[in-house]
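Technical note accompanying the year-one report. For the benefit of new consortium partners, we illustrate the data format agreed upon in the data management plan: each record pairs a sequence with a structure-token string. No post-processing was applied to the example shown here.
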Amino acid sequence: MDFSVLKRIDYRIIPIIALLMVISLLVISSVTTQIDHLDSAPLLTPLAKNQLKRFVLGWVIFFALAAFDYRKLRNFTWFLYLFMILLLIGVLFTAPVHSARRWYRIPFIGFAIQPSEYAKLIVVMTLSWFLEKKSRSIGLMGSALQAGLIALIPFMLILKQPDLGSALVLYPITLVMFYFGGVNKWVIRIMLSLMAVGLAVVLTIFSGLISHEAAKPVATKVLKEYQYERLRPDTYHQRASKIAIALGGVKGSGFRKSRFTGRKWLPEASTDSVFAAYAEEYGLAGVLFLLLLFLALIYCGFEVTTAAKDHYGRLLSSGITVYLAFHVIVNVGMMCKLLPITGVPLVLVTYGGSSVLTTMGALGLLQSIYTRRFMF
């Protein structure tokens, strides 16, 4: 590691990340406080303290990876990929939590590891390495199929857990990286067509244009029944998120003054529904501020892509930026009832250790690319 390069990082990103973390702590503190104990409740509730610890560790990872030369990732990318595959296989044999096997529980320290979160970043790293290595033959169908297999194996394993939301995140990441990597245009067109058809079918069922019950016998051959139930046009979770957002109005109710979320009527307020919980307390003004922060974060990511001086850096930064953008789009979309609820976290805001550490690691790699843009 060369910590001297840290003086060349994009310092605009530091306050953006810090503000997103502050928002996360405020929302988590609010939604985990009992409404009858507002006066005596500490600012940092137990869950907020846990999140703060993860943020501190996240900053350590961020600066460590920013100092690390990203080009050296090529030397052990396949090791990370194979280790990730073993973790995804192993988690299928753990004890289920809410009918899903997604976490390794580490005893004594109260920490859980969710391999699917780390898999997203490792797939980006592996595809970047492979697409650069095969740059001369990547236009051939055989190379494209090999690259597709890199994403398909973890996709199927994550789907088996089952974790449909995390699995689907891999699709747009792979598609964009195929585009930047120069993969055969017919492959990209086929992937785009499949995505368009899949999205059209989902939205047709989700909007009620096709009867939910009529499509169920066919859909449940592909999806688990509880996953398909998320496509129901009007679930309680969807109604609750819309109510919370609507109650926020323009200015919001204020910190720990939410009438709906405060009474625990919003499901998963610190995880899946954190955006709706935030919207109720801080209103349209707060939502616009939050979205502006995410827009700035994604803009900085694509700036790294344009500044990168090697093909590997461009592939790696584009994959990471799409990873960040897709999480924001899907999480906000599902809370606004534009998309089915799939459990995709809102990066740096949703409560969860694996998501925070993966995101901070991804942002650290972006800065590793940025700080070395003139070092070739």
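Partners are asked to follow this layout when depositing records. Residues 1-68+234-376 form one domain.
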